[in-house]
Every structure is written in C-alpha cells, then in structure tokens.
Specification:
homodimer; alpha/beta; Rossmann fold; Dehydroquinate synthase-like, alpha domain; 13 helices; 46% helix
Chain lengths: 361, 361
C-alpha cells in the first residue's frame, strides 16, 4: 500500500493506494469519528463492493443509498434523495458519508456532504480509474445543471481516499480508457517523463497489470496533489488540470450527459487544445500526432461528434465555468509536459480548430 | 454610519449600519470587483428598494431575480431559479450576487452564492430587523428541506453587509417584533447590561426611534460578531446563539413554514428554554417571568401552538441539527446574561416543560 498526502493545512488528508484497501476496517475506522455512517453507491458497484464496505463498518449505525448508474444521476435530485434518507434516519451533523463508486458518486456525495447541515465529514472510495486519479483528489464536488456541467458545487475535502486498485479488475474497458485520458493529461500538463513512461507502458496498463496501475495512479495523484496544494480554489495553476475540459464539457452538455463519458469528451478536448496550440506556433505537428496517437492507443475517441457544429460548440463553450467575465479562456500546451494558464484565445483560430474537426466525428 | 468588522482572518468583512447606506454606490463598488451583478429580492421588497440599488450599480452588467415573499420560498427550488437565471445570462464564476431582503433572501442567496460554480462573492443588504441583527452576520447560509429547517446549507461569508436602518420604517409590526426576539436573545445569552437597556428602552424601539434602533442593531451585531469570530463553524460557543431555536424549529417545521415567523417561534422557544432552566435550578421564577414579560412587551407569542402535542414535539426536535449523534442537546440559561453550551437534558424534565405548555397556545 502507498500513502500520499494532499497538503492543505488543517484540511490535509491521506490517499491510500493499493489492492484491497477498501476492505480495511482499520483504515476506515481511523478516519471515521462518527457513529452514524451512510454509504452512497450505485447499482453497478453495490453488488460488487457494498458488502465488503458494510463489514468494515461493524458497530456503526449504518444506512445505504443505492442510486442508478450514470452521469445523468449527478443531479440536484440525487442530492435530495441523499438528504431525504439522512433526515428520515435522523442522521445528525456528526454523521459521515462514504462515496463508493466512480466520479459521479464521488462528486455528488462530496457535494451532499458539503451541504448537509452545512457540512459533515466524508470518505472517498473511488472504484474507477478516472475517480482514483482525478475526481477523488482535490475537493472539487458538484452536481450538474441542465445548462452546464458542475455548475452547482463546493470545494470540500474528504477525510481520506481509499483507492483500491483491485476494483479496476471489474471495470468495463470503456470506463477504463476514459480514466486513461486523465492519466495522460498529467503527463501533458506537467510531467513529460511520465508521458514517456505512458508511451512505453500503455499496453501493460491496458492489460491491467497491477504494478503498472499502482505506479500510474500514484504518479497521477502526486501530480494532482501538488497542483491542488499550490492552488486549492483554482485561482491560478490549478486551472491547468482543466486541459481539454472546456471543449469536453461542451461535448458532454451538447450531446446530453451520459452519451459521452467524461474521459472520452476530455480526450477529444485534449486533441482540440493541441490543435489550437499548434496554430499558435507552440506545438509542432509531430507533438500533436504523438498526443493523438497515445490517446488512440488508449482506445479513446479523438474527433468530436459530427452533429455539433461550430456555432453550437461556441455557444456551449461560453457558459463553461472556466471563463472569466464572459471571455472564453482556454488551457493550451506550450509543449508536451507544460500547460499554459488559462488564456483568452483569438476567436478565428478557435473557429479554425473547431471547423477542422467539424463533422468528422 | 457605524462600521463593525466580523473578524475571520482572510474571510473578515465589514458591516455598515446607518440610514440610507443601501443607496451608497461608493460602498457597493468598494466591495464589488465583478462586472456582472445579480440582485435577488422578493415581491415585497422590490417595489421599495430595488430601483435604488439598481441605480448604485451603474455601469455593471446587471440581472435581477424577484421571488415571491415567504419562508416557503427558502427552498432548493428557489435556488434553482437563481442558478437558471445565472446560466441563461451566462454569468461567470466572477459574477457577484446581492441579497436584498430579509433572512429568507439572505440565507437563500448566500447558499446560491456558495454553490454557483463552487462559490461566487455576494453582498448582504438586509431589510428586516431580524436579518440585520442575525441572519446577515456570521455566514450561515441555507435552504429548508420539507423535513427540517436549514438542513441544506454552507458556511459562506459575504463581502460586506449594508444594514440600512431606514428600511425598518416600512417593516410590518409583526416582522419587527420577530426581529426583537433575536435582539433580546443577545441580552439573554451574553449581555446582561443590554438586557437591562432593552427593558428600559423597549417602547422607544417599538416606536422605531432611529437612535434606539441603531444602538440595538449595533450592539446585537457586536455580540454576534464576537461569538462568530471565536467559533466560525459552531464547534463550541457559537451554539449559544441557538437559544430557543431547537424548540422554535420544531414549531416552524411542525406547523409548516410560514405560519409562525422565525422570531416568533424563537420567542416561544426562549420561554421553554427558560422554563427548563428553572426546572434544573438555574433560573429563579422571577427571572423566568422577567424574560417572558419582556418578550410579551415586544408583542411576541410566549406559548406554543395548541395542536403540537408532546410526542410530536419531541419527534420534531430530534431531527434538529443541533443534536450530536442522535442525542437531544439544548442551550439553556445559567442566568440572564449567560447561556450554557449545548447539553444533553433529562427527557422527563423536557417532557415536563413541553407539557407545561402543551395545549395552552
């Protein structure tokens, strides 16, 4: 088992990475001071892991909420289901929540924990690669709004994260690939050496080799934890974690949540950000090809959906939350291994990138 | 104009108290860095003050949301109305919100500001006595849930508070009295001298004498600001601000939001807390009578509704958020001017207090 720390002063917390850490009653009880614990999970994850977590909570007053699976359940309505159950059970402000599932469950439960009685403790047990390397680290919680992704949320840190690599054995290939998009992102924005390692070891990862996975998750979490420790509330460098996300969110919103997985949309967005970086003279054609090639090898889409035209795309991007006072600002790449801070981009260049991809998906 | 500071480190903010401070474009612009500003108010307040605030926002991109008046609109649905409008207008994470109204508007808009894109700045312009002395100070924001008051919320501080005493001229008598309940509370929990001043000056306050009002608001805000500075997240002494509130919330929830004003329910709750304190041997009968008498003179109810029986009352109190791990804990009075920290109380004594009042409302 590896232990990392996300350093945020009094809000610091550990990430435990390893096989079967979710069964560790010792780890859970070390971070649970509450006698009342609610586990929130979904219908896919519950049959696989809920029993094991339940056994680790022996002696606590427990409750469970099992939601349907999917991004469309990352909603204010799902948060209300959690609040209802907490109140029916008379769970107090000293209760704790456990998020057992992927990014949807993690973001939703983190938001519910942030808001229930103005904040109760929670623990993340991410069961997808995406959640282990991204959404469970850094305290961004949110639900979606029909008009935009993650529009309603809070910065709220968990008590700890248990990233159990053995849960990835049961993960569908498509979900696994979506997680790789964020893994590759860390190499692109700040860790060239890791990018090269990924090029050399991608087949090992796709084969779910335990050692390769542990290394990739650890290195991803270290990268993210360093960025978050430097800029918890995203006033500066944290924004670089959003490489590809403004493009990607537009795809997710425009196509309806759930038709594209978050990581898939981000993969496409990374390609568009790379293309725009090339147009600005920063990336050469070879680097762009190298990025696209690695994403393709990870079995990720690299072209946007055919039915999203340029004007609709721009409209969807304009409400993305990364924009300062109405101006569209994007994260781009100076080179592989170094991202820019958010910057206003020339609309014509952006149109050129969107047109390049328009209708080719 | 009086200026107080709520001292919370980097989250510190000023409270400006005085006649016509809401018209001060200078004060507003000093605390508004955003070019996009949304004013949220209600149908009662809008015709009185919205124009004046709008004029102070000259040069900004503004939007307005006018909600119906009443506690029943302090809901997640109203928050969604605000989010919808922010998104339709493409307001970014650098937008600011202004809460123009009483406690319902303040709590709701504070919560919306805490959650929109994970937090945008907001300014409080409280237009009721209750909001000026209580809900606009301290950063507690929330909406109600059908099963309990303030169950969904956040600790989130405003940029500043503009407490305009001239807005109280138009306040209905019943609303004004409800505000006095919280004013009297400050005397009871930590400021005996202020309690004595209130006994001597209550008629001046009821006559809305400007100097008496300014003094009472200032002294209330100083008391609250001191408590909040000591304990922002209510792990200790801040809980004393909830004197009478666990009883009161049970009345509000049990009778349906809106049938009792918050301050009215708190006034009844204060009487019950005083009665229970007497049963524990802390308050003498004279002190209890003195408290009840001042509340009566402030034209506040001092008996609970007849149709709330003891068992229903206990059930409603048990979900109140002041309870630690399922145990009912109440704020009581050691004497006039000193409250206890939340303490578990003997169920039989509590039943005696509730029965004392049962069916007499």
């Amino acid at each position: 088992m590896k232990t990392l720390t996300v350093s945020l002063g009094e809000r610091s917390y550990p990430i435990y990475i390893g096989s079967r850490v979710l069964e560790s009653g010792e780890l859970l009880s070390r971070h649970l001071s509450s006698s009342q614990v609610m586990v929130v999970t979904n219908e896919t994850v519950a049959p696989l892991y809920l029993d094991r977590v339940r056994q680790s909570l022996d002696g606590k007053q427990t409750a469970e909420v099992v939601l349907p699976d999917g991004e469309s359940y990352k909603s204010i309505e799902s948060a209300m289901v959690i609040f209802d159950e907490l109140l029916v059970r008379k769970f107090s402000r000293d209760a704790s929540l456990i998020a057992l599932g992927g990014g949807v469950i993690g973001d939703l439960v983190g938001f519910a924990a942030a808001c229930y009685q103005r904040g109760v403790p929670f623990i993340q047990i991410p069961t997808t690669l995406l959640a282990q390397v991204d959404s469970s680290v850094g305290g961004k919680t949110a639900v979606n709004h029909p008009r935009g992704k993650n529009m309603i949320g809070a910065f709220y840190q968990p008590q700890c994260v248990l990233a159990d690599t053995s849960t990835l054995d049961t993960l569908a290939d498509r979900e696994f690939s979506a997680g790789l998009a964020e893994v590759i992102k860390y190499g692109l924005i700040r860790d060239f050496e890791f990018f090269v390692w990924l090029e050399a070891n991608l087949e090992m990862l796709l084969g779910r080799d335990a050692d390769a996975l542990t290394y990739a998750i650890e290195r991803s979490c270290i990268n993210k934890a360093e960025v978050v420790a430097e800029d918890e509330r995203e006033s500066g460098v944290r924004a670089t974690l959003n490489l590809g996300h403004t493009f990607g969110h537009a795809i997710e919103t425009g196509m309806g949540y759930g038709s594209y997985l978050h990581g898939e949309a981000v993969a496409i967005g990374i390609c568009q950000a790379a293309d725009l970086s090339r147009r600005l003279g920063w990336l050469d054609t070879d680097s762009v090809e190298r990025i696209i090639s690695l994403l393709r090898r990870a079995r990720l889409p690299v072209m946007p959906p055919a039915d999203l035209d340029v004007d609709r795309y721009l409209d969807l991007m304009a409400v993305d939350k990364k924009n300062v006072a109405g101006k569209l600002r994007l994260i781009l790449l100076e080179k592989i291994g170094r991202a820019t801070l958010p910057m206003a981009v020339d609309l014509e260049l952006l149109r050129a990138t969107l047109s390049e991809y328009d209708g080719r998906g």
